[in-house]
Amino acid sequence: MELPTELPGLFTLGETRFKVATWRRMLLASNFSSQCVLEQAWFCKASERKQHEFLVLFFAHWDASVPAIACVVVDRTPKSSSNDSGSSTPITLSSGIASPSALQTAALDSVSTTPCTGINTCKYLTSMYGPYNHLCTLTFPPTSTRPSATQISVLLSVTSTHAPNYNLYHFQCYWYASTIWEAIKQLFPGYIEGTWQGPRCHYYGFKVEKADSVEVVCEQYVNEWTRLENEAELQRRAELQRQAELDRIQQTWKDGVAHGLAQSQALIDRLLAEIFQLQSGLRTPEASRAHRNTTTDMDGWSSSWSSPEPVTDTSASGAQN
């Protein structure tokens, strides 16, 4: 099977951005995505404006002999946001205090990909979020339970579905990044977590409240992943049955062709044997004598008809006497 030069959603020649739901569909549609495992994750925080928090995930190439690494950036912003810092201006009441309902809007959970080329990754992140701090690193050694890109896409999708709305008090970028980070740790053991270089879920030194959804998200992920595995198993069995039926039909056709050829060959062999027998019979002495006798008889019979005896008219001769 020929390997693709690119894998949409992971290994691309340029920069791409997808909604989490779209990214999940893309990866589930490819067999290679399940072979690309997570090697490292960064927890990052913008150092300016709203101090947006986001994750950077690094996936290994499905071919171990290829050193390429896919860089995937995961974050949450309000859907109405048009700036790349992931912040929006809260709607406030006349008192100047933000209303919780006013601060809730549809969330835009997205995945951005870029070729991982060392220093260019940092430049890419800076172009998206401005100056940022790399707070912590999560490393998955070969002996750990490395999640695949497909599994991570399902985890992101489940997290987004759990809280589809962006809420400044509970379900903001801090919640999204932190929930995914902790869920990865809980679901895929054997990781190595580095030392934190600064507090997360903080805005200019103040801790931001967020919902504690890790346990629920992990449970929902397990249920969803089990459902997908069962669905894949049913499809696999159906494909095996379809292939078995196709093989049966092909074998029946081959058997029929072979039987027909055998019958045809038997008829040909019988006719050839009869022809050979006839030809052999013509070459025997008895057949030759019989053939000569038949020829002589035919010649005599032919002569008796071709040379008749003359008839004498006795009446005429008597009259003359």
* Oligomerization status of the protein chains: single chain
Cα gyration radius (Å): 46 Å
Q: What integer is the average pLDDT?
A: 82
What share of residues is helical? Answer: 40-55%
Order of helical and strand elements: EHEEEEHEHEHEEEHHH
Strand residue percentage: 15-25%
- What class would the helix/strand composition place it in? alpha+beta
How many distinct beta strands?
10
Quick overview of this protein structure:
The chain has 321 residues and is of the alpha+beta class.
Features:
eight-stranded antiparallel β-sheet, 321 residues, alpha+beta, two-stranded antiparallel ribbon, 2 domains, elongated, 10 strands, 7 helices, disordered C terminus, 46% helix
Describe this structure in words.
Residues 284-321 are annotated as: Disordered. Residues 293-321 have a biased composition (Polar residues). By secondary structure, the protein is α+β, with helices and mostly antiparallel strands. The chain folds into 2 domains: 16-81 and 102-212, no CATH class; 213-285. It is 46% helix and 19% strand. The chain is built from 7 helices and 10 strands. Strands 1, 2, 3, 4, 5, 6, 7 and 8 form an 8-stranded antiparallel β-sheet that branches. Strand 2 (38-46) and strand 3 form a beta hairpin. Helix 1 (20-28) packs antiparallel against helix 3 (149-162), helix 3 crosses helix 5 and helix 4 packs across helix 5 (214-282). The chain is elongated, with a radius of gyration of 46 Å. Mean pLDDT is 82; it is low at 81-100 and 314-321.
